[in-house]
């Protein structure tokens, strides 16, 4: 596809304004292993750090075997524009790693943010964690299963969880019931063939540990498994008297649930900011 030269120059001219007033720090190692690109994070923050601000940490999707933080620079920029310190992380991927290592990476990244984000104008006690697709699974897993932050030697520092069309909330159910397809083999590289590990890696089996609010988004036209498991999560959390909100975004499919947020005025931002403000 040929690039429209006019649009290209408009984009280049727009870039300096897009980042005006925003500080950016790329490729910070949250594990101390600077050569490991899967243990790096980027921070986007308002340059005025005199007043502490809420923090949004984003965990990308990609079926646990793909994805990178650089893709989501626009999310970091847009949230920083809305006076939120934003952190976009990488984490280990399959087949080199399984879900436990991925979750441990995410918990370690959040520990780093908790200990260091004040230097970027963020509030350590106001870390909201959002994940899309497989990233939603990891956000919910480390929040619900206490072993991951226990391994880091800290209490759970997550203020609230935001699931953006989260996939894999109950991998035991999915891998047991769903008709196998071309993706199933890749999922098994993440969760193994051990059905007990399918349960151990499913956030829905740890709901009694939830002590913070959930905001659950799904797209009206997303995958049936995501609709079913997200709706069940919402109902189960309510049954346990846990604080939770549920939003269906009209006409959106799975990928569109995150790609729509390229646009700074997208409705998702208003909903997220209102949710964050509610639990101040």
List keywords for this structure.
alpha/beta; Rossmann fold; eight-stranded mixed β-sheet; 11 helices; 40% helix
Topology overview:
Elements: H1 5-18, E1 22-29, E2 40-46, E3 53-59, H2 73-81, E4 85-89, H3 99-116, E5 122-132, H4 134-144, H5 147-152, E6 158-164, H6 171-177, H7 184-191, H8 195-200, E7 214-219, H9 224-239, E8 244-249, H10 256-259, H11 267-278
Parallel strand pairs: 3-4, 3-5, 5-6, 6-7, 7-8
Antiparallel strand pairs: 1-2, 2-4
Verbal overview:
The chain is of the alpha/beta class and 280 residues long. It has one domain (23-278): 3-Layer(aba) Sandwich (Rossmann fold). 40% of the residues lie in helices and 20% in strands. It is built from eleven helices and eight strands. The chain has helices spanning 5-18, 73-81, 99-116, 134-144, 147-152, 171-177, 184-191, 195-200, 224-239, 256-259, 267-278; strands at 22-29, 40-46, 53-59, 85-89, 122-132, 158-164, 214-219, 244-249. An eight-stranded mixed sheet has the order 1-2-4-3-5-6-7-8, sandwiched between helices. α2 links the parallel β3 (53-59) and β4. α3 crosses α4 (134-144). The model has no long low-confidence stretch (mean pLDDT 94).
């Amino acid at each position: 596809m040929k690039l429209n030269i006019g649009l290209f120059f408009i984009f280049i001219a727009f870039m300096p304004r897009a980042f005006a007033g925003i500080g950016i720090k790329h490729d910070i190692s949250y594990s101390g292993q600077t050569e490991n690109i899967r243990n790096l994070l980027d921070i986007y923050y308002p340059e005025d750090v005199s007043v502490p601000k809420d923090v949004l940490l984003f965990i990308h999707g990609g079926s646990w075997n793909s994805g990178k933080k650089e893709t989501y620079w626009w999310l970091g920029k847009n949230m920083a524009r809305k006076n939120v310190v934003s952190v976009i992380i990488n984490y280990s991927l399959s087949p080199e790693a399984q879900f436990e290592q991925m979750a441990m990476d995410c918990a370690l990244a959040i520990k780093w943010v908790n200990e260091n984000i004040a230097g970027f104008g963020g509030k350590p006690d106001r870390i909201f964690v959002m994940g899309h697709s497989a990233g939603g699974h990891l956000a919910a897993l480390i929040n619900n299963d206490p072993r991951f932050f226990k391994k880091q030697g800290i209490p759970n520092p997550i203020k609230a969880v935001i699931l953006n069309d989260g996939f894999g909330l109950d991998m035991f159910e999915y891998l047991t019931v769903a008709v196998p397809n071309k993706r199933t083999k890749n999922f098994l590289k993440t969760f193994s063939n051990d059905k007990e590990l399918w349960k151990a890696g499913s956030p829905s089996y740890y709901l009694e540990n939830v002590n913070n609010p959930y905001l659950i988004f799904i797209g009206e036209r997303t995958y049936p498994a995501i609709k079913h498991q997200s709706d069940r999560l919402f109902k189960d959390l309510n049954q346990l008297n846990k604080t939770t909100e549920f939003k269906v975004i009209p006409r959106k499919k799975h990928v569109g649930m995150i790609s729509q947020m390229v646009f700074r005025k997208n409705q998702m931002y208003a909903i997220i900011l209102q949710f964050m403000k509610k639990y101040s």
